[in-house]
Amino acid sequence: MGSARHIASRIARRSSACPAAATCPWHRALLAVLLCCLALLGCGGSSAQGAPFAPAQSIRDAVFVREAAIAQNDGYIDASHTSDGYVSASATSEARLKVQITHGEQSYNYDLPSDGTPTVFPLNMGDGDYVIRIMRNTSENNYVETTSANVSVTLASPFEPFLRPNVYCNYSESSACVAKAREIVSDAQNQGEAAQKICAFIVDNISYDTQKAQSIGNVKGYVPDPDETLATGRGICFDYAALGCAMLRSQGIPAQLVTGYVSPGDIYHAWMMVYVDGSWQTASFTVEQNTWSRVDLTFAAASDATQYVGDGKTYTDRYIY
């Protein structure tokens, strides 16, 4: 789907090639409307504002420290960085593994690689007492606990879980998406403009992958790869949200990756919530200062794929990462 910038450019070129078009009242009116849309899309910093901004020179990383981990039955739970908003785990097994994180009545379940690869999980349910469990599959959907840790969490700030990489928003200092984010925001004057530039880049450069959406369907366990999405220029909603969150977080802008349902018909979907010390408004987004604002990059890029991305009207959160 072409942006207002591209459409207005095409019409302008046709106007110069056709003198009659240049004098046509409806043509001039259409061009004026499209140029207004272009202004709303905020190509520069004029429509964005906020606190002064400078590109981050390093990311807030998330690491696994085996020496600090609780070890039981070939499983390791590292809870040495809870104030930074995450725990990490590692285990080896011939069977499928999961990590379960519980806080009060809330619970999140994640796949854990069975080859010992350390994986980071967000402490996304606020301060308080958590139970972290590594679970091994015994049959069908049945699991048994192999490793556990009781953790009391006091976050350094409520934004910590949403400023670092995790299992569904995976990036590092050497990631291509981090380098691209720094490039994109190199001349941003404020936080609103920085966030706007990153979101506009993704909408303009990542195409919705209908074939991938059809093949994945409701397959469980899909994990997005922000660098792969950037390299291929294609993705589904989970990919858009993961890439957006990775790029924003790498620049110190809190971003939540949210999965849930969107109208019509409760389509399962993914989007972002961003918290910016600034604001901007476009035809697709309204981001207000110092509050969580929804940004649905997929809908902005592929609003014509309603059967996959919904109509952008009614959202119901299910999980926040």
UniProtKB/TrEMBL annotation:
Record domain Transglutaminase-like: where: 229-287
Q: Transmembrane region positions?
A: none
Q: SMART domains from the entry?
A: TGc
Query: What InterPro entries does UniProt report for this protein, alphabetically?
Result: Papain-like_cys_pep_sf, Transglutaminase-like
According to the UniProt entry, the coiled-coil residues are none
Taxonomy, superkingdom:
Bacteria
- Name recorded for this polypeptide: Transglutaminase-like superfamily protein
